[in-house]
C-alpha cells in the first residue's frame, strides 16, 4: 500500500499530519516520524511501516 502522493499539512515537534492518497482514496493520516518506522492510520486501524524514514519519501510525492 504505497501512497500515490503525500501532502504535508501541519508539522509539530514530533507529530506530522498528512493527506495521502492510496488507490485514489483520500485519507487523513497522522504519522509519527521515527528512525524505526511510521505509525500510519488507515481507516479504523494503525499500520506500522518498518524501516521507513521521512527523508526516504521521493520528493515527487510531497506536494507542499
What does this structure look like?
- The chain has 64 residues and is mostly beta strands.
- It is built from no helices and five strands.
- It has one domain (5-61).
- It has strands at 5-11, 16-22, 25-34, 37-42, 45-50.
- Strands 1-2-3-4-5 form a five-stranded antiparallel beta sheet, with no helix packed on it.
- The chain is globular.
- The two termini are 21 Å apart.
- Residues 3-38 and 44-64 have low confidence and may be disordered.
Integer average pLDDT: 45
Largest β sheet strand count, sense and barrel closure: 5 strands, antiparallel
Order of helices and strands: EEEEE
Radius of gyration using CA atoms only: 11 Å
Shape: globular
Side by side, the strands of the main sheet go 1-2-3-4-5
Euclidean distance between termini CA atoms: 21 Å
How many strand elements?
5
Number of domains: 1
Question: Brief overview, please?
Answer:
The protein is mainly beta and 64 residues long. The chain has no helices and five strands. The two termini are 21 Å apart.
Main features:
64 residues, mainly beta, five-stranded antiparallel beta sheet, 5 strands, disordered N terminus, disordered C terminus
Blueprint (SSEs and pairs):
Layout: E1 5-11, E2 16-22, E3 25-34, E4 37-42, E5 45-50
Antiparallel strand pairs: 1-2, 2-3, 3-4, 4-5
Amino acid at each position: 500500500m504505497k501512497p500515490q502522493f503525500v501532502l504535508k499539512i501541519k508539522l509539530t515537534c514530533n507529530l506530522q499530519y498528512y493527506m495521502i492518497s492510496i488507490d485514489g482514496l483520500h485519507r487523513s493520516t497522522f504519522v509519527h516520524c521515527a528512525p524505526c518506522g511510521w505509525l500510519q492510520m488507515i481507516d479504523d486501524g494503525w499500520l506500522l511501516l518498518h524501516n521507513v524514514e521521512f527523508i526516504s519519501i521521493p520528493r515527487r510525492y510531497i506536494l507542499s
